[in-house]
Amino acid sequence: MKALLKRLSFIILAFIILSCSNSNESDYQSIPTEEFPNVNATFGTKLDLANLYNYANQTIPNYITKNNSGSNLITDKGATLGRVLFYDKNLSSNNTISCASCHQQSNAFSDSNDVSNGVNGTTDRHSMRLVNNRFALESKFFWDKRAASLEIQTTQPIQNHIEMGFSGTNGDQNFTALISKLNGISYYKELFKFAYGSEEITQSKIQLALAQFVKSIQSFDSKYDIGRAQVVTDNQPFPNFTQQENSGKNLFITPPVFDSTGNRTSGGLGCAGCHKAPEFDIDPNSRNNGIIGTVSGTGIDISITRVPSLRDLVKQDGTLNGNMMHTAVITSLQAAIGHYGTINIAPGNTNLDPRLTPNGFGQQLHLTATEVNAVIAFLKTLSGSNVYVDPKWSTPFPN
To answer: Which residue ranges does the record assign to the Cytochrome c domain (predicted)?
Structure first.
């Protein structure tokens, strides 16, 4: 009898815990949609506030351990507001550009153009992919890491004269004018009240919501992930990989061995020195990778030290999600590998990563065609499919 009572107590306790863990979701379901007539009229069934998408509790593989979310944790309500803001062209001065104009879901939230179109011209740099940005040690954003957090980053394009035009300079209105503009849009009053309990619109609230939406964009359904879930470490052969893909993985992970003049004599390519598996994010201590571009009015651009995760460099069919690097000068995976195969120390590049200059010389990997093809095959395994089609990351606007 005691054993039976003990078992029943465990069942009751489990039921209570399960009920509590689902309490937030049930609260969302109970919201009367008639309280949001302007949201319903504008978005129809594409934005159902009574049945929110799951942003806050998405499945994350247990081998993913990095997280730079900070205190602004993802909520379903906040990310839903962020989704609307991300796709709304009203956030630009002439109603023609949204965040999604330069970060397109069909391209892993990058741009197929080398540089992006803004309200007053084109950007200086290629639009960075936004996939898995929170699963990283690096917490700074933009190619040159000038934003200390994703929250700060989200509104800088809005306040840029070229990009979205609320800069307060060059004849632009300032961010206060944007807030006034959003206050005049009826669905925003409802959405801010829905997310924050108040109709008040502030820059801080916009930053929090946009950052939550961007943080929610994740990709863990690749061939790599299927294989990684079956092994203990990345050093083991993946059961679902071809021999070529496993060879490419080993070359990616294994450091090269150099002679006194920077020539590889054995080992792999050492890509994981800056892009460590399984997140494939950038090492925060990385410096310039040898790609030098120009920025209008500032001369050569050697400040670039941040890059997106290597996940979803290409779609599953192997086509690029836009050209690579901040200059978009690299147009294929083969060219990307080739760049690191022969590093030339360009005059004026005082910020070149020392890992690319063994013994003071630009590294010479002396890659064979077999090695290049193997690494390309491995990089393609890092691409998923859901990120391109999941409706929770798509536009909420009907047209």
So the answer is: 77-186, 243-383
Residue found by looking up tokens 């960075």 in the block? 128
Predicted structure pTM score? 0.90
Q: Which tokens hold the place of 96?
A: 């023609």
Shared domain for 123 and 271, answered yes or no, is no
15 lies in a domain?
A: no
Does residue 89 sit within a domain?
Answer: yes
Please check whether residues 128 and 238 belong to one and the same domain: no
- CA neighbor of 85 nearest in space, from 100, 72, 107, 104: 100
Q: Is 209 left (phi over 0), alpha (psi -120 to 50) or beta?
A: alpha
Number of structural domains, the chain? 2
d(CA 159, CA 336) in angstroms, rounded, equals 33
The boundaries of the domain holding residue 232 are 223-386
Amino acid of residue 187: Y
Dihedral of the alpha carbons of 372, 375, 376, 378, in degrees to the nearest 10: 160
Q: Alpha-carbon distance 229 to 95, whole Å?
A: 45
Q: Are 179 and 205 in contact (CB under 8 A)?
A: no
Closest CA to 323 of 315, 313, 312: 313
Q: Could you tell me which of 60, 353, 344 has the C-alpha nearest to residue 215?
A: 60
Q: d(Cα 363, Cα 262) in Å, to the nearest integer?
A: 5
10 Å Cβ neighbour count for 109?
Answer: 28
pLDDT tens by residue, 45-74: 999 999 999 999 999 999 999 999 999 999
**The one-letter amino acid at 157:** P
Residues 207 and 227 in one domain: no
